[in-house]
């Protein structure tokens, strides 16, 4: 018996994903660097099922139907390159290596070119959904060697999550590192969503003095509205969860957040492409600030600020918070799709934004009913440059705007930080402003560095320099954008 697909890496995601594959009728060959894990799996969760346990890479390759399909679910970085080198001697033309981990997209571009130069196919597939998603159906975002997709499609679209209409949350993204790029942006949006939810939680807890039970009920209500999403749902569950001693676990958790790098990659890539992903950037920095726990404890005893709770109508502020979260969420996705658009132009990927929204509709961490509207927006206007300009989202922002502003003003008055939600509002105000103060900024640059400027009464692309001090002469700096 030959296996339909092989998988290397039996950690949480790998183990659950192969169980998913087997439950859908596929025979799966498995290998792990620590071979003991293979034996434990085959005699444990994989007992009596259609798995082939392998004790070497060579044995794994020998156990597979042609063309071989080998998926790596190992730690991003050197481990991926190591396994590629181990696999290549045992592959034949048309065989496919799939990296299902959180690899950085430039690495996937490099690896795709390298593996193709050897005569094989390479796919970087972003997989989202965590342990439960891997087992029951994740969102899968594959990209790389185009000719690999017809072979992988029957497997991936069978094991992935499905929308309520039965549409698979997996479609071919494009060439090179496009699959991992889309997954990176997904994770960046995830950072933003989580941070915004945390900010609403803190304003309710510290600004309104609400109990965990009250907040649990609020998030439950929100999850039955336009905010219906996986992250709002689990926030409700977390706020209602107690340990065996009857203690609220949320109150026992230290306020220092970890991160594995994908949010940072998104923010850095946005800077590289000159795209204003302000909200996601603030979400990353908020995690960095949380890690300075000891410094913050010391600072809290030195630096003063408002300590009062809100004296207004609590129900009204909660209603405003709901609108502020919704409006900020729209901005977060608008920024994310702006970055996707910039990358698609840079790499000639021809990304299909409506299909990307559909891939995120089920299985993944940012899944929500909200994504249906994003798909509709791009289906209605394939040339849409920013989600804020879509009629549905424009109207939603108009309806939420005053509540959004009240929330930010109240957070400032109370001294409660809301970096993501306030930055979303600042982006909205900046994007809708026809004339920003960058004319003064450009004058400053020209004054101290002769960097030149364009003029409102001349054609774009024509540059001028002023001798601001009378001592500078007429020589100017060449213009360029880093």
Task: Give your account of this protein's structure.
With 482 residues, the chain is α/β, with parallel strands linked by helices. The chain is 52% helix and 7% strand. The protein contains 19 helices and seven strands. The chain has helices spanning 12-23, 35-43, 57-62, 78-87, 105-117, 130-136, 149-159, 178-207, 212-222, 230-239, 262-273, 278-290, 293-300, 314-347, 353-359, 370-380, 391-414, 419-431, 438-449, and strands spanning 5-8, 28-31, 51-53, 69-72, 96-99, 121-128, 139-144. The protein has a seven-stranded mixed β-sheet, with helices on both faces. Strand 4, helix 4 (78-87) and strand 5 (96-99) form a beta-alpha-beta unit. Helix 1 (12-23) packs parallel to helix 6 and helix 12 (278-290) packs antiparallel against helix 18 (419-431). The termini are far apart.
